[in-house]
Amino acid sequence: MLNTSVARTLSIVPEVRTGCYLWRTLWPCRALTNKGYVADHFLFENYQEEIRPRLIGGNYNVVLTPRIAWKERHMQPVFDSALNAGNLAWVYELDDDLFSDDIIERFYRYNETSGQGPDMDPEERRIRYTWAARHQREARIKILPLVDLVIVSNDNLIPLVQRYTDAPIRVVPNAIDLPWFTERLRLDEPREIDALTVGWSGGWRPEDDTDVLVKVWPRLARRYPHVKFILAGWIPPEVAEAMPPDQLISLDWRHFEEYPYLIRNIDVACCAVADHAWNRCKTPIKWIESSLAGSAVVASPTIYSAVVTDGLDGMLADTTEQWEECLSRLIEHADWRRYIQENAAATIASKHTTEQTWMLWRDALTEGLAVSDRAQRAVLA
After folding, report:
1. Residue 367: domain span
2. Which end of the chain has fewer CB atoms at under 10 Å, N or C?
3. Do residues 130 and 211 share a domain?
4. Residues 173-219: tens digit of each pLDDT
């Protein structure tokens, strides 16, 4: 007899090539499974043949949908039918602001700068991508009133979600799967770049996030000609154009399995984000990843001041002058780099791994089960 008071979760992910998949699906599912709970995940591809049978099969009582937005309008009644047939609680999850008007322009800029999609007239591209972004935003807004509970990654997302749903909202912060990440650092192998490096890694970001690099990195390059500067993943053109070519190294984006090894090449990591509302809905995952990969981190106070103790497990820099001062000190002093990185790794191991957060996922999913009228029908039957 299955225990109907314990969440048995099926997570349906729209795609698996993003960092969100790691932080909000793979690692939480691994943590819950390791603790003896049912927490499976599948890619939303062939709904009729792969997803629906699992929804109605009786093995699960909670379905978790990270970031999902239906591409076709007919999917909502189809999904509702499966939820009702399976007596499933529905929990939604997100770790970014996907509801503000900003997301429409950001989606367009992301696709435009990353070269995704077919070749077409620039104005046609803008129209198509803007429409697609608006459609996704509206699709998510229409979903929120229908769910039983929402999980978010930080407190700043709560008021945004509350505009569109009366469902309970629970915060489960991002946390790393330490064994998974450490194994993929490949510490028994040499890294690709042997020089002392300062670096930035990540996907597309607007210019205000990387503006400090444009101002500071060229000055540092002149002061320290032996230092290499790495851009890993997306290559911000304004940063690349500002740097001397012989000191700049561009490393292409790689599969998430290779990402930990990729960022091992960075000795001093720059976690720079502009101070505005959209960024304040993000989480400090770059500090976590970079520190565990061996970097000493300089970070913006925006989001990072919540986890970094300045001068202990990272350095916080706001102004251009502070960024240059912090980076210079780390470039010049190997012992200071080691001190910052080792303290950060210890902080992360004790506060920011799935060993500390798995029970928050369990409790939120169990609450979603408890408040769902649909799921409780199965309990009372």
Report:
1. 9-177+354-374
2. N
3. no
4. 999 999 999 999 999 999 999 999 999 999 888 899 999 999 999 99
